[in-house]
Design goal:
Layout (H helix, E strand, L loop, with lengths): L1 E4 L4 H10 L5 E4 L17 E4 L7 H10 L3 E4 L9 H7 L2 E3 L6 H17 L1 H9 L17 E5 L3 H12 L3 E5 L12 E2 L2 H7 L2 E4 L13 H6 L5 E4 L8 H9 L5 E4 L21 H6 L5 E3 L8 H20 L12
Parallel strand pairs: 1-2, 1-3, 3-4, 4-5, 6-7, 6-9, 7-8, 9-10, 10-11, 11-12
The structure holds 1,4-dihydronicotinamide adenine dinucleotide (NAI).
The site of 1,4-dihydronicotinamide adenine dinucleotide (NAI) has 31 residues, from helix 4 and helix 6.
């Protein structure tokens, strides 16, 4: 079967190419999937898509009309997919639910450690021959309280890490993983926000969680606390976060995801004028750290993503039940 791979980067070609079985043929497009680029899938039975590809009803209908019958998500989150439209069209849709939860949790830790101890600023200073410590002061994380919102696979991995560092770990989750017993205390979101020195978001983006961090929830956070988001940008109301940073109530912000990231992330815009004023305002704060959705980006995770994507395709081709099919049954 021929598969149109959208939003393809050199590393996608490498890892999907290494895992591609003889029964499959991949064609790569650097363009994202939108209504304007659907036609690239002409002659393909499947599309392979990523986090910022558009999979709303018009796009799914257009793909179906072209003969596409399978949508292979090479990511865990599926907030960009109209599941109802896909089901109505009888499309096979599958994701890669857990390729390396530890990779994302470790990236959250990297963001916390960098922002807390200012190693990014120290790196630049030392290379300029500046060994002054002023402005690099951090806090000792041992003994601090870390609040984890969403204690699924990634949140549980993050809880393990912070527990191992001697932090007190709180989790807020309507159905947290049982693996958390002994590692973390279960609390409500308000209690978590009020008690945590660091709040790390790991729950999925859904209608119920969109802008869960808004002016009201920011006001409930401990003054000077750090907010970390490696989940989905839409969990945070960016304008409210900017106000909280300006008032100095929010102590620091580290994000790997951004609500309007689709027009920025995964591409080199270093010679462009960036029109997103909210994003540019964020960039002016010394206590804000942004990475471009790289939490998943490890060799191990990329291999797993490629292997599971083709295993999902094999289920579709052989008519076998697929544990990773969407919608998720639970
Ligand atoms: P998961 O499905 O294992 O866990 C999500 C948890 O969130 C579940 O335990 C669920 O009960 C909980 N939850 C749902 N609604 C909630 C709410 N209102 N408040 C608190 N908790 C709530 O998902 P997993 O694998 O841990 O991934 C979490 C998210 O991380 C994904 O949805 C995805 O958006 C993001 N992600 C980010 C990556 C990156 O590169 N930055 C890579 C992979 C995933």
């Amino acid at each position: 079967m021929k598969i149109a791979v959208y939003s393809a980067q050199p590393y996608d070609r490498r890892f999907l190419g290494e895992a591609c079985p003889p029964a499959a043929e991949t064609v790569y497009f650097s363009d994202p999937l939108t209504l304007d680029t659907v036609a690239l899938a002409q002659g393909c039975g499947a599309v392979c898509v990523f986090v910022n590809d558009v999979l709303d009803a018009p796009v799914l209908e257009a793909l179906h009309a072209l003969g596409v019958r399978a949508v292979l998500l090479r990511c865990a989150g599926f907030n960009n997919v109209d599941l109802g439209a896909g089901a109505r069209l009888g499309l096979f849709m599958a994701r890669v639910p857990a390729y390396a939860p530890e990779a994302v949790a470790e990236h959250a830790l990297a963001l916390v450690m960098t922002l807390n101890r200012n190693t990014h600023r120290a790196y630049a200073r030392v290379r300029e021959g500046n060994f002054a410590l002023d402005g690099l002061l951090g806090m000792t994380l041992h003994g601090k309280t870390v609040g984890i919102v969403g204690a699924g696979q990634i949140g549980t991995a993050a809880a393990r890490i912070f527990n191992g560092m001697g932090c007190k770990v709180l989790v807020s989750d309507p159905s947290p993983s049982p693996q958390l017993d002994g590692l973390a205390a279960r609390v409500g979101l308000d209690e978590l926000l009020a008690a945590s020195d660091i709040v790390s978001l790991h729950c999925p983006l859904m209608d119920a969680t969109r802008h869960m961090i808004d002016a009201a929830s920011l006001a409930r956070m401990k003054p000077g606390a750090m907010l970390v988001n490696t989940s989905r940008g839409g969990l945070i109301d960016t304008a409210a976060v900017i106000e909280a940073l300006k008032s100095r109530h929010l102590g620091a912000l580290a994000i790997d995801v951004y609500e309007q990231e689709a027009s920025l992330f995964f591409h080199d815009h270093s010679s462009d004028i960036i029109a997103d004023d909210l994003f540019q305002r964020l960039m002016t704060f010394p206590n804000v750290l942004v990475t471009g959705h790289q939490g998943f980006f490890t060799v191990e995770a990329m291999r797993e993503i490629a292997a599971v994507t083709f295993a999902n395709l094999a289920c579709h081709l052989n008519g076998r039940p697929c544990a990773n099919a969407l919608p998720v049954s639970s």
